[in-house]
Amino acid sequence: MSYACIFVPDFPVEAILRAEPELRSRPLAVLEGKAPLEKVFAANASAIRAGVSAGMTRPQVEACPNLILRTRSSLREAAAHAALLDCAQSFSPGVEDTRCDTLVLDLDGLQSLFGPLPKIARALARRACDLGLETHVAVASNPDAAVLVARGFSGATVIDPGKEAEILGRLPVEVLLGSAENEDSAPLSETFHRWGIRDLRELAALPDVALSERLGETGIHLQKLARGAVSRALVPVEPPLVFEEAVELEYPVMLLEPLAFLLDRLLQQICARLNARSLATQELRLELELVNGYAEEIATDNGRTPLTRPCRAQTRQVFRRILRLPVPLLDARTFLKLLQLDLKAHPPGAPIVKIHLAAEPAKSRAAQSGLFVPASPEPEKLELTLARIAGIVGEDKVGSLELLDTHRPEGFRMMRFGCGEREGKSSRAGTRSGNSKIEDLSARLKSCPSPSLPFPPCVTQHCSEDLVTALRIFRPPVGITVTVHEGKPTMIACTKRREIHGEILWTAGPWRSTGDWWEQTGWAREEWDVAVQAETNIVLYRLVRDLLRGDWFVEGSYD
Amino acid sequence: MYIELHACSAFSFLKGASLPEDLIEACANLNMPAMALLDRDGVYGSPRFHMAAKKAKIKAHIGAEITCQAFSPQSAVEGCLCGEFRLPLLAASRLGYQNLCRLITRMKLRAAKGEGTAQEEDLDEYAGGLICLTGGDDGPFAHALAHGGMDQARLRTEQLAGIFGRNNVYVELQRHFHREQEARNRAAIEISRSLRLPLLATNGVSYASPRDRELCDVFTALRHHRTLTTAGRLLARNSERHVKSPKEMRELFADLPEAIANTMELSSRLKFTLKDLGYEFPKYPVPQGETMMSFLRERTREGFQQRYGRAEAELQDRARRQIERELKLIEKLELAGYFLIVWDLIRFARDENILVQGRGSAANSAVCYSLGITAVDPVRMDLLFERFLSEERGEWPDIDLDLPSGDQRERVIQYLYRRYGERGAAMTANVITYRSRMAGREMGKALGFDPETLEKVSAAVSNWEYRDANDAFDRRFRDAGLDLNHPRLRKYFELCVAVQDLPRHLGQHSGGMVICQGQLDSVVPLEPASMPGRVVVQWDKEDCADLGIIKVDLLGLGMMAVLEESLHLIRHHYREDVSLAHLPADDPSVYSTLQKADTIGMFQIESRAQMSCLPRLRPKKFYDIVVQVAIIRPGPIVGQMVNPYLQRRQGREQVSYPHPSLQPVLERTLGVPLFQEQLLRIAMVAANFSGGEAEELRRAMGFKRSQARMKEIEARLRQGMQQNGLSQEAQEQIILSITSFALYGFPESHAASFALIAYASAYLKCHYLAAFTAALLNNQPMGFYHPSTIVKDAQRHGLKVRPIAVMQSEWNCTLEAALPSPFALRLGLRYARGLREEAGQALVRQRQLAPFVSIRDLVHRVPELRKDELHTLAEIGALNSGSSFEFPVSSEKQKQLPRFARNDNEVNDPHPLTTSHSKNLKLHRRDALWQVERAVRRSGPLLDALPEPDSQSPLRPMNQEERLVADFRGTGLTVGPHPMAYHRARMNAIGIRMASELRGIPNGKYLRVGGCVIARQRPGTAKGFVFLSLEDETGVANAIIAPDLFQKNRLLLSSEQFLMVEGILQNQDNVISVKAARVAPLSITHAPTESHDFH
To answer: How far apart are the first and last CA of chain A?
Structure first.
């Protein structure tokens, strides 16, 4: 049995260099974290020689001349890892994805195909190099020995069977403790250090029983690893489950109805395949190849992440839509309706020549209605309803309000509306949290306009407890011109809405609030409740003055 | 006119955001004639408020916001109103103030530190003389209105009127431009009219100016353990809680003029200020027929006989006259009780064999000397009594007692509590204020920085004493890798600056105690300290002094503990009874040691600066030590007195006096003023000041200096000197001396008290090195040097120091018999890092029962030892067979063992556990580590009981470098050769000289020295120069680094453990140092040696 290991040292750096090979000869440091507190996560050899080390902050390394700084990119790392997998899988079907920077290949039977083991090792390294990655490759008779040798020696190394202990013996003990499966054995590093065990040869030479008495099974396992004597089976990478269907059209489709017919067929096929594996889907990806060069790309996200704005890309001919669902579903009709609504809201804008539909598999939803849980709409129906509403009012205007804990007026954000709370968690908890939100909301509404507020402080006004004054909020607030005398507004005028105009009879206020002073988005405003003499009657308004800009608005009127 | 009657300061701790002085300043700027300070649950800020107000001629009303448990008489019927509210109370009279203090004391003392609420019955009991407001957002009215509506609010107001009296309740209105607040105001107006209670406008002030709101928000976030972002509506809605002008307030309450007018009316009713505190001097119980004064006279007479009985007649005469003068003043000022209380304390300490010695200005008093409070004879030394006590000053004497730090001091404190009762004695508080590091950490926390960033930003605040242009904040931020241009960091920086010096919380002063015969709680509220059994007053030392409260400072002095322990060790091991009072006065070996500056470990004269002065000053008698202690102080250094004095002493400069009349004052110090008393006397002689006036001058120039006051006194001083015909030059010199001395100089009496201790420490080091070193090591941390330096110094003086060994070491360092020197020092288990005392003591106890026969035996018999502690013991060689496990246990001894000390097998085994001893195995450190790893791994009850002798391991022994690393890592020092000793050949090859060689090398030679950096200093008085002390196996070499060289090698000089310094040797009067021209790191060891930096 022979195994090869491909190891990419300084993987985050290599992932960057793969994308920007021109930087390979220059000192490069990869930063991680949010500004202004980014820190060096990894660096290449020339950067380390220049004094850069992990944990240094951006301003510290910026002082280093000629140093190139890049932010750690998970996308690039994922791409590099995929490339590494491609490279390994092009040699062997049995590839273990040991770590993001380490792969192990089963080389059994490959000699007849690719030649002797040293040649395979070199070919692997070369292939990886062609893909833009500098790697260490090692071949040994067991996977773990191959991993250790690859981590410890650069270039391509082949160990003859029986020589594992000898070769491994030269490696420092840190290589063993830093390898993938021994991540939890960090305290052992301290023990070995205390014992003066520096390399694997010294560890291998310790008496088995005595070591077992001291370090237990872990110690013995490590010792076996150090001797290159651990034998285990590979855990090969499973090919991903792909649920994709596509159809190429002889004639371009221009209308939604024939497209729906085709989509229905594809959806039926995908749902049948998912059903066969007892799976559902939470994400549908639709790709439409268009006739001309016009394309529009947009992601439909009903979740919490903000929506990306549509962008026009003249160079691409593929129109993509992604439909994310709140719960895993498996109903072709629902999917179709959702896609129809989505396409209606976001038409591709050009005739379609190819349809490609993919579903991200997910485990089916298992839910049981509780006896005392109020009935809620079916998620499928709810989703459809929401999609319909969103089609009318816009996607960013659908959902449920979540009040933010702030003095800032309008301090809320839109949350995705759903019945998830009632499903997953206990109904009681859900109700309580719902109640507390309602209480919070009502408390805050109660604390807002007081019945007596429209009257100036000098007027004593006895209001009955049950008198309710409603405030009709203008959205957006209406910009006005205000005449101010001795710090108080005396006259208002509005060019857009002529009815908002007149002399102010009396005022209450100002009500001042300021906040978020520690952010760049600090705000300060002043509210006045005023009574304005309109043509026929007296109207009560709430005026707002932005204290930072000095603008006046009418925010609403009192009934 | 309007008066703010509801303000809180930063002494409400994380509530208000301005100091009381700032509130008063704002008040003065707005021409407000009075203000009331109501801090939360205390009067913490009132003395500073009072003192600031006094200066600004503003009336300071005192009160507090009291946290009350919500009460309701109808609770049984209508449901209890839950929660707490803050009740604002104002002291109208002294009775009111006393009641307020008692109320706070009661609620504080019955709860844990920082907690406590008042109950309705407490208010009933202490309502007299207090005026109650209905409060703001968290007041009783708002609380009742929010929880029970108008009915409850009316009921609550009626209750308050019932408790405090209808005339003493004001319905409070605040307008901060909040809608809901205005709704509450309307309810308050309605209720006040229906109950016929007066309205009162306040602004509920929390800070002096609107910009302080930011800090107030930060405090709110910190108080609720949130960040600014997550604090949400807990933060203030706007910035309106600042001190507003009467005009603004009148406009705000234009509809309710009576609410404004009532502030004046109420202010005129508040008669009480802190001037009227009512503090009475403590009384000392005296026998029937005696008065305190007669009793004091008698005790002084007895003391006089002891102190001066055998003195020459002239001295006796002078002493008698001085004592009589002092007693007359004491009688006049009615201070007899105070002196008797201190005398009683001294008597207790003596009876209990606790070393005690008065220091500070008390040593100027012959009465204190006679009573045994101080050890310096002020008459013989001609010390100035007025520095201690004077009639003009209007301040009370300050007696500081030095006690051995630790348990002994605690015993004296507890004695005071016992003697004067819980309400009669208390510690003074120590107000912990925001300083760089804490400010950095807390502001970062409020801004939501993660812990790692917090550590980084707070570390950016350097603790270098000297700050040059390169030490600017932004530079330090950049050094820490942070960009100050980022808005959030800029805001962070602003907050850090703004919060400096604001109080954070109340701690306990290390030794200040106030005593007040059983009625202290009517003077100042008391509260529990975090240390059990301790009670703390709400004011700090300075506040107590400002308000004329007498205090005794019981200061824990590490060196006193060292002296006491040394004497004990000498008695026990040397079999000699040494008494500090009877040490030979002029021991030649002591002075010869001092002249050589061989003073590591000695009190006050061991620092590098002291060492560089000693060879020039060459002390020959006790008074020289007094000068030595006083001269290396910022005062003489800033006042440029050091060099003239040394020059004159060495005969290189003529002794001259600014004016012939000053000769008697300055004669002893060769015409150069070195002590505070001399400056006082100069003022008296040269400018015709009285003793009290001179002391007033010192204080005016001192800590809380005021520009106006300084100018005024300086003018008087000049006028007096002009009248007496002093030259302009002499006048300037005297003014410079006074200004630099007042703040940083030593009083001669204090220097003399310290010199006594310094002499004792030097004497014990010279004659009883083993005992002194052991005591010194047992009382660390203290002094200037790290224990490793102390050990190396002792070794160079011939002391054999033995390593920690579990079979010999006690918890403390001890003495063992050794040849040829009488004693060797055995390091104590306390030096094993990470070893808890509990585990160490358990080990010693078990060993006393029977020696350990193997590591396994140790592990089983001392279960308190944790794995990491055993690892440390093994690593530092404390378990080495050579030194520990080679004692065969005789069968006789085995039989004597208690059953629990043996495991079951031992009882049945006729030949217990002797295998390893018979072989007398030599186990090295790694063998021990190997054994420990096995022993700590429990193998179940069956196998655990099996005896297992120690055996050799397959591990190789540690090499010399590994042993060094283990020693320094595990104990912070090594008893083996100095790390430099291993590399001497290499050092010689690169021309690095030994420290001991330098004495024989001529001045001006260019050379190299190298060693372990044991101290780095950058004193504020040295203009950016850095002083390094480099230790090698032969001694310590000093290097001077110029500012530009330091800037070029900042990182290297700040962090490198071993350094080579190349430069010119300077040998001036045997003060040897190398003026660095180049520095480079030395590769010696990876052992984590330590250095005392930046003192």
So the answer is: 86
Are B933 and A191 a contacting pair at CB < 8 A?
Answer: yes
The answer on pLDDT for A472 being more than 80 is yes
- For testing the chain A interface, which of B173, B175, B179, B931 should be mutated: the one with the most A CBs within 10 Å? B179
Q: Which among A120, A121, A206, A218 is positioned nearest to A169, based on CA atoms?
A: A206
At B200-255, the pLDDT tens digits run: 999 999 999 999 999 999 999 999 999 999 999 999 999 999 999 999 999 999 99
Residue A464: list chain B partners with CB under 8 A.
none
Is A251 an 8 Å CB contact of chain B? no
CA dihedral sign, ordered B969, B972, B976, B977: positive
Rounded distance between C-alpha atoms, residue B479 and residue B483, angstroms? 9
Beta bridge partners of B432: B505
Binning pLDDT at 50, 70 and 90, where does residue A449 land?
A: very low
What pLDDT is stored for residue B650 in this prediction?
87
**Closest CA in chain B for residue A460:** B186
Distance from CA of A518 to the nearest CA of B (A): 7
Closest CA to A267 of A341, A347, A359: A359
Cross-chain residue pair B933–A510, CB shorter than 8 Å: no
The residue-averaged pLDDT of B327-346 equals 89
For residue B456, which residues of chain A lie inside 8 Å, CB to CB?
57
Interface with chain A: mutation pick from B238, B934, B952, highest number of A CBs within 10 Å: B238
Which residues, numbered 290 to 329 in chain A, qualify as contacts with chain B under a Cβ-Cβ cut-off of 8 Å? none
Using CB atoms, pick whichever of A36, A206, A458 lies closest to residue B255: A458
- Examine the pLDDT at B271 and tell me if it is beyond 90: yes
- Indicate yes or no: CB of A194 within 8 angstroms of CB of B929: yes
Strand-pairing partners, residue B493, are: none
User: How does pLDDT run across A350-387, given as a tens digit for each residue?
Assistant: 888 889 999 988 888 776 667 777 777 777 778 888 88
The residues with which A488 forms a beta bridge, in sequence order, are A485
Could you report the per-residue pLDDT of B669-687, keeping only the tens digit for each?
898 888 877 888 888 888 8
CA distance B922 to chain A (A): 17
**In which residue are the tokens 């604001």 written?**
B502
Q: What is the pLDDT of residue B395?
A: 67
Q: pLDDT of B880-922, one tens digit each?
A: 854 444 433 344 444 443 333 333 333 333 333 333 443 455 7
> Residue B120: what are its φ and ψ, rounded to 5°?
-60, -40
Distance from CA of B64 to the nearest CA of A (A): 28
Instruction: Using CB atoms, pick whichever of A59, A205, A453 lies closest to residue B478.
Output: A59
Write the pLDDT tens digit of every residue in B70-86: 765 554 344 445 688 99
Asked whether residue A256 carries a pLDDT value surpassing 90, the answer given is no
> pLDDT averaged over chain B?
85
Secondary structure (H, E, C), B750-814:
HHHHHHHHHHHHHHHHHHCHHHHHHHHHHCCCCCCCCHHHHHHHHHHCCCEEECCCCCCCCCCCE
Cβ–Cβ under 8 Å, residues A541 and A556:
yes
Find where tokens 């539909």 sit: A357
Residue bearing tokens 């007849």: A112
B56 pLDDT above the threshold of 80: yes
| Confidence category of residue A447, pLDDT binned at 50, 70, 90 | very low
Alpha-carbon distance values, B974 to A142, A431, B832, B964 (Å): 47, 67, 12, 7
Q: Which helix (H) or strand (E) holds B67?
A: strand B59-69
Tell me which residue of A505, A501, A510, A515 sits closest to A544, measured CA to CA.
A510
Dihedral over Cα of A270, A272, A276, A282: its sign: positive
Query: Between β-strands A95-99 and A102-106, what pairing exists: parallel, antiparallel or unpaired?
Result: antiparallel
Instruction: State the smallest CA–CA distance between residue A446 and chain B in angstroms.
Output: 9
Decide the pairing of beta strands B59-69 and A279-290. unpaired
Contact between chains at B453 and A511 (C-beta distance less than 8 A): no
CB B920, CB B866: distance < 8 Å: no
